[in-house]
Amino acid sequence: MPITMIEPVAQAILDELAAYLPGKIATLQPTFTPVLPMPVPTEYVYGHSDFLRGFPVVQVDPVRLPMLNEDVRWQDHEKRIELGLFVTDVARANLARLLDRYARCLLETLAERRKDSAFLQAGRNFDLVFKGEEIDYGSTFPQSGQFLRALFIPMRATRRDVEFH
Question: pTM for the complete prediction?
Answer without folding.
Answer: 0.84
